[in-house]
């Protein structure tokens, strides 16, 4: 819709004019996103505040894959937006999309530690929550080679560096090795990962 397009450009004056002329901010696109989702991705708190003022329930929305605006903001590193969403909206801690991914996992696997900390402190996120396959944030960070996130989880939060994922009991070191992330392998080993670890099929 024109309103959705205006939200991609962060133009509050145009957004306000469209709404005043009858544009419906609750309409969704084919992926289930409404204007609030789009504004959360773009990272403009002023637009989000306006949308909440004119449509207080607009935050309570999910995409077709059950991703909330909080997932979107966490994934894209929009810390000011995440702060606003935690203050003004009422998302459940560790809400999961259809793959079981939480906003905390989104922040961790994309290296947004400021947002991860915010979700822990203000939203009671669980750092060891598992996705639909049984993988934790640690394993997802190993896949995306987010060494800073791995150090944060293990050194600061005490997450088990050899914790297992999925029914195959795969440790983070296996994920890093499979993806070819040499520096992540070194990070995990420096944190005490067991280089002799075997998964549920006996693979090292």
Averaging pLDDT over every residue, what do you get? 95
Number of strands: 2
Rg value: 19 Å
As for the CATH topology of the largest domain, it is Serine Threonine Protein Phosphatase 5, Tetratricopeptide repeat
Main β-sheet description: 2 strands, antiparallel
Strand order of the largest sheet: 1-2
What string, H for helix and E for strand, traces the elements in order?
HHHHHHHHHHEEHH
Distance between the termini: 52 Å
Determine the structural class based on helices, strands and strand pairing: mainly alpha
Count of domain modules: 2
Low-confidence stretches: none
Number of helices: 12
What's the CATH first level of the largest domain? Mainly Alpha
Helix percent band = 40-55%
Shape descriptor reads elongated
CATH architecture of the largest domain: Alpha Horseshoe
Going by CATH, the homologous superfamily of the largest domain would be Ankyrin repeat-containing domain
Percentage of β-strand residues: under 5%
Mind explaining what this structure looks like?
Keywords: ANK repeat, Cytoplasm, Nucleus, Repeat. InterPro entries: Ankyrin_rpt, Ankyrin_rpt-contain_sf. This is Ankyrin repeat domain-containing protein 16. With 204 residues, this protein is mainly α. It has 2 domains: 1-126, Ankyrin repeat-containing domain (Serine Threonine Protein Phosphatase 5, Tetratricopeptide repeat), CATH 1.25.40.20; 127-204, Alpha Horseshoe (Serine Threonine Protein Phosphatase 5, Tetratricopeptide repeat), CATH 1.25.40.20. It contains 12 helices and 2 strands, in the order ααααααααααββαα. A two-stranded antiparallel sheet has the order 1-2. α1 (2-8) packs antiparallel against α2 and α3 (35-42) packs antiparallel against α4. The longest helix has 11 residues, at 113-123. It starts with a helix and ends in a 14-residue tail after the last helix. The mean pLDDT is 95.
């Amino acid at each position: 819709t024109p309103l959705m397009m205006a939200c991609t450009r962060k133009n509050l004056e145009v957004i306000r004019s469209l709404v005043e002329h009858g544009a419906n901010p609750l309409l969704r696109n084919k992926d289930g996103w409404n204007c609030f989702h789009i504004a959360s991705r773009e990272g403009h708190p002023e637009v989000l505040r306006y949308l909440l003022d004119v449509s207080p329930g607009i935050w309570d929305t999910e995409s077709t894959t059950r991703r909330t605006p909080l997932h979107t903001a966490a994934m894209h590193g929009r810390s000011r937006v995440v702060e606003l969403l935690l203050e003004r909206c009422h998302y459940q801690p560790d809400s999961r999309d259809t793959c079981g991914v939480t906003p905390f996992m989104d922040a961790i696997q994309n290296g947004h530690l400021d947002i991860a900390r915010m979700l822990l402190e203000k939203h009671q996120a669980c750092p060891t929550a598992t996705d639909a396959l049984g993988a934790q944030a640690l394993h997802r960070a190993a896949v995306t080679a987010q060494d800073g996130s791995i150090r944060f989880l293990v050194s600061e939060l005490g997450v088990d560096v050899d914790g297992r994922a999925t029914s195959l009991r795969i440790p983070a070191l296996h994920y890093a090795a499979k993806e070819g992330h040499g520096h992540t392998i070194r990070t995990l080993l420096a944190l005490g990962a067991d280089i002799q670890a075997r998964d549920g099929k006996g693979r090292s």
